Amino acid sequence: MKKLLITGGAGFIGSHVVRLFVEKYPDYHIFNLDTLTYAGNLENLKDIENKDNYTFIKGDITDAEHMNTLFAEHVFDGVIHLAAESHVDRSISDPLAFIKTNILGTVNLLNAAKTVWKDQMDQHLFYHISTDEVYGSLGETGLFTETTAYDPRSPYSSSKASSDHLVRAYHHTYGMQVVISNCSNNYGPNQFPEKLIPLSINNIKNNKPIPIYGKGENIRDWLYVLDHARAIDLIYHKGKNGETYNIGGINEWTNIDLIHKLCEVMDTKLGRAKGESAKLITFVKDRAGHDLRYAIDSSKLMNELGWEPSLQFEEGIEKTVDWYLANEEWLNNIISGDYENYYQKQYSER
Ligand code: NAD
Ligand code: TYD
């Protein structure tokens, strides 16, 4: 049985990746390593937590000693590394937390892997999950490709860029087999309601203002989270050693247009008069250093590995709204902070 370590598996994207691998690959044992920060929620995985090929490990990637012990104990065949501090606004108010987890944490994993994989580097793979934000900000035209020069502009994107470089350095210096993917903005079920789409869904539902930074003219390229998880599966199994793959939704929206679309869907789902939810739109002070536009050219992934996004945005956003409306308890537990007790309740007696 192959042993695969997925870090950050209790978070938004990680939980979808863990589920996909646990269900699709019964011959893999999936270890989900997560320290359960405010963003880590084991309720995301309650449908698979008792599967035989799944183990949750509570651990912090900034704890080098624990990482070394863990890798020595299990000798993982591969690692898919998603654990990170992930929100730009938080990185503006607390950059150091991002340096610690995203840079030091990644180096701890690389070191632990290097120590136990050293004589058999060709038998193991370190797959680092990154973001398109490392490429900086686009003007009105153009797309990020895998050869676009790095130009990160927020503490978050700088910390991710740094970890990407370190992963490449371990490939070139120590011969570690690595792949990296840089993905655009994800949306879908289980996203923490601090990010634009779930925050807005929650506020619309509760008749609270929808805060739009600046004039809402910033552009993001949105991808449904399961399409990202499918791309990760493909890249883990078929990606070429040392390569980078960009993943994007071919789906650019200004924030204001996206929120108007979301308001329309919410009006229909909540039985409100057309235009009712949009009245909640409130323009607020812009984010410091707010990147204008992100957009990804995914042609390498599409042409070389045969990936393509499966969902149109209209379908994806409807599915997302349906999920949040059907999972009120999940949302309420997060907002009240009760989700943090799930680990104690479910795991303390195991
Ligand atoms: P998230 O914030 O929802 O989840 C992050 C997870 O990492 C949480 O479960 C958290 O508990 C865990 N974690 C944080 N610090 C840790 C530590 N020190 N040790 C162990 N676990 C820790 O993030 P997400 O949106 O699911 O993003 C996952 C990855 O994908 C990140 O690396 C992020 O940079 C990348 N990414 C995200 C997006 C996006 O739109 N969300 C887009 C491209 C790339
Ligand atoms: P976010 O979901 O935080 O992702 P990222 O900063 O990684 O792109 O934000 C998406 C876009 O929405 C970004 O341009 C900032 C903007 N935004 C708002 O206008 N209001 C909000 O309350 C939030 C959280 C984001």
TrEMBL record:
Coiled-coil residue spans: none
Superkingdom: Bacteria
Entry keywords, A to Z: Lyase, NAD
Residue span, NAD(P)-binding domain: 5-320
Catalysed conversion reaction: dTDP-alpha-D-glucose = dTDP-4-dehydro-6-deoxy-alpha-D-glucose + H2O
The keyword Membrane appears for this protein: no
Example GO BP: nucleotide-sugar metabolic process
GO molecular function: dTDP-glucose 4,6-dehydratase activity
Record InterPro entries: dTDP_Gluc_deHydtase, NAD(P)-bd_dom, NAD(P)-bd_dom_sf
SUPFAM superfamilies tied to this protein: NAD(P)-binding Rossmann-fold domains
EC numbers for this chain: 4.2.1.46
Cofactor(s) in the UniProt record: NAD(+)
Family: Belongs to the NAD(P)-dependent epimerase/dehydratase family. dTDP-glucose dehydratase subfamily.
Official protein name in the record: dTDP-glucose 4,6-dehydratase
Gene: rfbB
